[in-house]
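Hey team,

Filing this mostly as a record. A colleague (T.K.) asked me to run one chain through the structure pipeline before their review meeting, and I want the input and output archived in the tracker in case anyone asks later how it was produced. No errors, nothing strange. Just documentation.

Input sequence:
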Amino acid sequence: MKLKCLIIDDEPIARKLLQEYIEETDFLELAGTAVNPVKAVGLINSLKVDLIFLDINMPKMNGIEFLRSVPNLPMVIMTTAYGQYALDGFELAVIDYLVKPFSLERFLKASQKALELKSLKENKSIAEKVDADHFYIKCDRKIERVIYDELIYVEAMANYVIIYTMSAKLIAYITIKGILEKLPAEKFLQVHKSYIVNVQRINAIEGNTLHLGNIKITMGLSFSTAVMERVLKDKFIRR
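Output structure:
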């Protein structure tokens, strides 16, 4: 794994030293440099930067102002000759604070923190994607696992719902509103006061009837416009 870095510093000597340190570090890659934060804003997104080495005292906008004014920044390591800004930096969630002049050893220690944080975030993201394909729900005395892609539709009854999957029919004591709030909106849609369907399972629409394979679900009048827009949007080929 390599971290793409951006140096923001108005001092040529400081930029050159950071560039040399980055070149000495096998998990860092220099993506670009900027002499002030204003010029750096456009580079951050276009270069897909992972880590910024940010000076504080610079013209037009200082490093602290930059941190406070620009949302969704990548990881930041402060590099400055002024130690009194350390508390401000850490309150703004910087990874580390390097006081100039700093050694290669100290630079590597700070950079290693960024690498470890990046690794943790990626591993968490992978785990969330793996875990995001299903949910658990209590049905009678058992806790059942339901895989989203295998869930065909949900039907509301008096004070419970019936969950129809490809292999089972599960009864859970929850309202249709309650289960709809837990289902991913990009996959499921309420089409009637008593029905939620898996959008990917809709293979035909006939009047106010949705065909989910051999299953037919009636659309409620108040839901039909939203259903048609959702199902047919950008996919309906007209004459």
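Quick notes for T.K.: The CA atoms of residues 36 and 211 lie 59 Å apart. The mean pLDDT is 89.
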